[in-house]
Amino acid sequence: MTLLTDLAAWFDDVKAEFILNFIDKNRWRMLLTGLGNTLLIALLACLIGIVLGVVVAILRTTWDNAGTGMRKGPARLVFAFLNRLCLIYTTIIRGTPMVIQLLIMYYIIFATSDNGVMVATLAFGINSGAYVSEIFRSGIMSIDKGQMEAGRSLGLNYLKTMWFVIAPQVLKTVLPTLANEFITLLKETSVAGYVSVKDLTKGGDIIRGSTYSPYMPLLAVAVIYLTFAGNRIRGVTYSPFMPLIAVAIIYLILVMFLTRMVGKLERRLRQGDNR
To answer: Distance (Å, rounded) from C-alpha 190 to C-alpha 149?
Structure first.
């Protein structure tokens, strides 16, 4: 009887915390708003990253394949400069923390702007572009050089050969990796709260600050690390179990769904190869 009484009391406490954190004052709307901002930032940043990544990958692979054989002149100097610029871009972006890049964008480059969502989107897009460029670059380099030579022998110029011959094969190769990059980007947006963006993690943080709901701090931290939500625990005595658990579960569901879609995509691509 004592065990049943303790379990009933524990369930009552959990129910009370759930009502306090989500039902009272419609606090669940903060999570819904945060989820919308998180998805918006992730999608737009992914598009920016793909555009930047493709441009950087084409410039670098063009220089690697034909740059050294180009005749001296203005065209070679321009290509050499652009290649060096792309190399510096990827080195700096991949070598510095995402949070630092976000803070520099918000407090230095766009210091006069109060649109945190726009700044966060640009910061995450520029960061993603460096990684996407390496994904596309490795995909282009994996294509046999004979494919380019075959296209040129048919009378196609370099751009048409890249578009009609190389690009379809590259896209098929890098698509699963690109989907995984989007999943990573989705989780990275959880640090957007550093620049006052009300994303999913920030929504949970606001609820925690309003309710001061103390509950098993180590368990909350473990769940957040498991889903890589990356929220900060600001206090030692206040442990935001219910809000952060909700944030972690939402992130986990999103990642599981996207991972499942990537698996289906890979199976379909393998089936296409077998035909």
So the answer is: 45
Is there a single domain that holds both residue 89 and residue 205?
A: no
Q: Which residues contact 189 (CB under 8 A, 6 or more apart)?
A: 38, 41, 42, 45, 120, 124, 199, 200
pLDDT, tens digit (0-9, with 9 covering 90-100), for 225-260: 344 333 333 333 244 555 556 666 766 677 677 777
Q: Are 177 and 97 in contact (CB under 8 A)?
A: no
Res. 224: pLDDT tops 70 = no
The reported pTM is 0.71
Q: Pick the closest to residue 174 from 145, 146, 144, 132 (CA basis).
A: 132
Tell whether the model's pLDDT for residue 126 goes beyond 90. yes
C-alpha span between 24 and 265 (Å, rounded): 42
* 134 vs 247: CA distance, rounded Å: 31
Same domain, 170 and 238: no
One domain for residues 56 and 128: yes
Q: How far apart are CA 215 and CA 17, in angstroms?
A: 9
User: How many whole angstroms separate alpha carbon 17 and alpha carbon 242?
Assistant: 7
Q: What is the pLDDT of residues 14-39, one digit of tens each?
A: 677 667 666 677 766 766 777 778 88
Report yes or no: 190 and 230 within 8 Å, Cβ to Cβ: yes
- 118: which 2 tokens? 């726009």
